[in-house]
User: Fold this.
Amino acid sequence: MADIMNPILETLEKTGQAAAGNTLPEKFISADSHVTEPPHCYIDRIDPAYRDRAPRVSQDLDGGDSFVIDGMPGSVPMGIVAAAGKDPKHMKKGETLFKDLHRGGWDGKARLADQDREGVIAEVIYPSVGMVLCNHPDADYKQAAMWAYNRWLHEEFCAPAPDRLLGMGQTAVRSVAEAIEDFRQFKEMGFRGVMMPGNPATEEDYDHPSFDPLWRAAVELELPLSFHILTSRQDGPNSVGGAGQKNVTSSHRGPPQNATQALLKSIQDIIGVFIWGRVFERHPKLRLVCVEADAGWAPHFAYRMDHGYKRHRFWMKMGDMDRLPSEYFNENVYLTFQDDWVALKMTGLMNPRRLMWANDFPHSDSTWPWSRELLLGQTGHLSEQEKAWILHDNAAELYKVGR
Assistant:
């Protein structure tokens, strides 16, 4: 356990926060957690026309398991999809078998015990393979695979405790009319929101007025829209790649580590589309959640939007907005994070009612099972109310936990 705790100790030393004397809410809600789709997830429930091409588990050259998606380069290695609780020095991209992963990644009953270990009373559940599917070039295949996942999530994973395992439906957004029907089915299935692909499979982008009926439906059905990192076209098709995969092009400059910084840019672009595209102006009750992109950057981003509006809207002929861009940002956009000391230090420059903590279980960036120790060292300067909002109340209100 001493080795596993090293990341916490290093963080506490860096921040200089003393955990002694600090208190946290008894119960947390994780606004971003994941499943590890089991080998049968897509094969068993996909449209029969796509069964031979369904995403499936295959063995990499290193002997480890990974998900292979027909029509996509590379693969999704199990080694980093479910590495929660491992010392960073011992993480491996491959060389990992599905049978050796956290059972709570694919078994809803087992997941409840993982939650209890950290005092988590509910988790917003996102896919793992489904993140990669968001960038599949074939919209029909993507829709078929996403609905196979939706059925598995509803019928198997969330079924043991739908009040604690909060499912998010996936749709390829092939058309506005179809997406509206998907939203309605998600509501009937008890899902709490929609995980949107970063780019719709339509000619028009999300800011086009043709999408207004979909945004009205989202508000009426009380389904927040979630955009997760790694689900936009500009994130690149090969942000994950299995061992032995060579000659795969990359969409980022420089070493692979530089790709992690680009993930923030794709989320910022989505926020800009909705704000500058006047989507929130037309639909003030629409709620957008930017998932796993942290939040420490938000104050400056919002400030620069206001600067651009005040200085350049005249020559750019954009017209006046009802409110400043930062006001739409602070009201309509939620941000999730798992280890963002900067965001917690800058809550006074943001809307703390729009920040939501997450543990990202069971992914490699997860803070599980040491989230409580980490947060004790990072939240000592916050009021009890602010801690309650960020660690529980904001997510409970948005996703109607306990109702």
User: Anything to note?
Assistant: The chain has one domain: 2-17+27-246+254-398. The radius of gyration is 20 Å.
